[in-house]
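User: Quick sanity check before I run a bigger batch. Here is a single chain. Can you write out its predicted 3D structure?
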Amino acid sequence: MASPLVPDEGDGVSTAPTTEVRTAAPGLGFPRLSGPSTTPLGWPGEDGVSRETSTATPPSSAATPSAPPVEQPGPIDRTTRETAAAAPAAGPREDPMDAPTQDDTEERAQIAAAMPGADAQTPLAAAVAADARRRITLTGRSVPRPAQTRVMTVANQKGGVGKTTTTVNVAAALAQAGSTVLVIDLDPQGNASTALGIPHHAEVPSVYDVLVDGQAIEEVVQECPDVPGLFCVPATIDLAGAEIELVSLVARETRLQRAVSAYVEHCEAAGERLDYVLVDCPPSLGLLTVNAFVAATEVFIPIQCEYYALEGLSQLLKNIELIRNHLNPRLHVSTILLTMYDGRTRLSAQVADEVREHFPDQTLRASVPRSVRISEAPSHGQTVMTYDSNSSGALSYLEAAVELAERGAPGSTTTQESA
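Assistant: Done. Predicted structure follows.
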């Protein structure tokens, strides 16, 4: 029996008792509707009205004269389209970049607090919500500039704790927030130079020339191609022999300190004051690391959330005390950052709790989780801040950089204690 709604393809005779039926094309399954006949695709047919010059008439057409016919636009070539796109719009146009900047920290915090949360039974949703809050709170923020240049040595004689990764990503985050940052790669491996996209083959002027030959930093410094305001003194393989060559030189422990001080004065004389100098140290306590300790006033210690890192921290603190007593009385540990944190293990939580208990003022609230994006970024010659700025690792380093900058801002408690 044929359906009263679908036409029979065999005889094409409709069984619906209607006087005028609008049928659809066979096989498409459209219902039969009353009205004019349809085209083969089931849409209404031509109504005989020409729309070339017709315009919509307002309801009060009797009192309003009819508008002249609108000329149909012809084909627009590419040149005309580009010219029209480039032409400015009529009337004054406000540029959002011309608007005065204002501190929107409280507004960001309110937006982040208004986001719905997730319970403990959905850890993945909770992690996503936490990243979204941090992204709203931190992305695009500017950080306060320190009253004077902060020279920080990123050191830990234990290898593989994230010294180089922390140096380049914190430096990139500070530069993106408006600071001027100099990274000194003091590791012969040159990994910090690689992460910042700086060439460091054997013929490139490097920190070796500064330490051994007494060359000025402004003659070897290079700007990072991806992050404006971020500069780097690269390290080459020649630095591997600098330990031996420095032994016979006069004042071998203070050579980097004199070079950094001269470069800071050079920048201030040129009207371009440096905000931060971060020195990436090798995983040892040789003359290179001693030079870094003497040149700096602050020590930035990344700690991997494992037991061996705690043993290395106690040894590092003893060496810092020796440097303070004999070479640099102003040196102090100002910042500790927990890296490679794995929230799924109790060990990471225990190490983090123990570090925060013994160093409550120095340990940052932010911690850096294990992240594949952080490991992938150097293979592209980038930091994670430019490689994937929305990843959890980039947000963690951005949070750490903001906290570090706020601690060193004029009038902060940390600044007064260090002074």
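The two ends are 96 Å apart (CA to CA).

User: Great, the batch can go ahead then.
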